[in-house]
Design brief:
Layout: H1 3-30, E1 48-55, H2 59-72, E2 76-83, H3 85-93, E3 100-102, H4 106-114, E4 118-128, E5 130-134, E6 155-158, H5 163-174, E7 183-185, H6 188-196, E8 202-206, H7 207-213, E9 218-220, E10 230-237, H8 243-254, H9 256-264
Length: 270
């Protein structure tokens, strides 16, 4: 065998290795951090379904952010369960499968953390303030929290164990007022709906919900609301079925874009 013949297999091997390196580099480039974006989501491709349990007052903002998330991450789907934070917390501790929990108060988030169902420490991402929702045009001329105690006025509150109900009670206590509502509702959307359907004259809800209702109600601010501002914490859940996508969704909520969406809805920065 000649020297040239003996070298040929070595050259072929080197060429083959070089080709593999080129292919590997191309593959790495194409499958790089496509999951990263200006929204602040973490690098890496995410896919599949993300299940988010969130306070009813977050419905409009989170729905918008969910659509944005799906656009940024093709192949993902965000499924929401909105309701009273206390009920959602009970579902999570009862074993309901979910990836993310966004509560309307630290107290309801504590139900989840005390049960060991949160991964890491929850982070406050927004705050919310109360407002009175009246019928369009405010026919009863409600201008203060005290006006809600007028005889014959049909007022609705959230249930005491729900964050908006606890906040309303705190505001009433701050004003030294006693109020007996015609009904206690299980979440803030249900309380607001009573006014929208003209089944109640007024309801104490979040100002974000008054804004979302548009011309269906009229909002009345009151100073006692400053004593009852709710912090909203968000957390990745310990047994999240899709932890990577869940982390990316939480990152979007906490990003500058998430802050803009929530700010337009009337939420306050923490």
């Amino acid at each position: 065998m000649t020297r040239t013949a003996r070298r040929r297999p070595f050259r072929i091997a080197v060429a083959g290795a070089a080709a593999l390196l080129v292919l590997s580099a191309c593959s790495s480039s194409e499958s790089g951090p496509s999951g990263s974006s200006a929204s602040g989501s973490s690098p890496g491709q995410v896919s599949g379904e993300v299940t988010v349990f969130a306070a009813a007052s977050l419905q409009d903002s989170f729905t918008a952010l969910g659509k944005r998330f799906e656009e940024e991450h093709p192949g993902t789907k965000v499924t929401f369960s909105f309701g009273g934070s206390d009920s959602l917390a009970a579902s999570i501790t009862g074993g309901a499968p979910a990836d993310v929990f966004a509560a309307a108060s630290p107290k309801t988030m504590k139900i989840v953390t005390d049960a060991g169902d949160a991964s890491g420490t929850p982070t406050t991402f927004v705050r919310n303030e109360l407002e009175i929702a009246t019928l369009p045009g405010n026919p009863d001329r409600i201008s203060s929290l005290k006006d809600l105690t007028a005889k014959g006025l049909k007022v609705v509150l959230c249930a005491r164990e729900v964050p908006c109900g606890a906040a309303a009670r705190k505001a009433l206590d701050a004003g030294g007022l006693k109020l007996t509502p015609v009904s206690y509702e299980q979440d803030v959307k249900a309380a607001l709906t009573k006014v929208e359907l003209k089944e109640a004259d007024a309801a104490v809800v979040y100002r974000t919900d008054v804004r979302a209702a548009g011309d269906k109600v009229e909002g009345v601010e009151f100073p006692e609301s400053a004593d009852a501002v709710n912090d909203y914490p968000i957390a990745l859940l310990k047994d999240a079925p899709n932890a990577e996508a869940a982390k990316a969704f939480v990152a979007l909520v906490r990003s500058a874009e998430g802050e803009r969406v929530l700010g337009r809805a009337g939420f306050l920065t923490p």
